[in-house]
Write a structure and sequence with these properties.
By secondary structure, the chain is an all-alpha fold. It is built from three helices and no strands. The mean pLDDT is 86.
């Protein structure tokens, strides 16, 4: 496989993984909210709780994604398998001025 194909497949896989982590985080946080906090708060606060669970799931998935990506990039030589998404600023042989 070429570097461009590897890059596209990695981006696709990472996106799907991030979406799955967000969904799982949402369900876990929502379960924790309904199990422990909903009985302590008034019914009118459910909308705000749902909002904070949603934002918390996005934040948690971002933290998990970044940590796993950092670990993966330590083990994989990026230059060997992946092409840069955006072109180089100064291609070899040309001098910026």
């Amino acid at each position: 496989m070429s570097k461009k194909t590897n890059t596209l497949l990695f981006i696709l896989g990472a996106t799907i993984f991030n979406i799955l982590v967000t969904i799982i985080s949402f369900f876990v946080l929502f379960l924790l909210y309904t199990r422990f906090l909903s009985s302590l708060l008034p019914e009118e606060a459910f909308t705000w709780g749902f909002f904070f669970v949603f934002i918390g799931a996005i934040a948690l998935s971002f933290v998990i994604y970044r940590a796993l990506l950092k670990q993966l990039l330590k083990k994989i030589p990026v230059e060997k398998y992946f092409d840069p998404i955006f072109g180089r600023r100064n291609p070899p042989g040309k001098r910026g001025g």
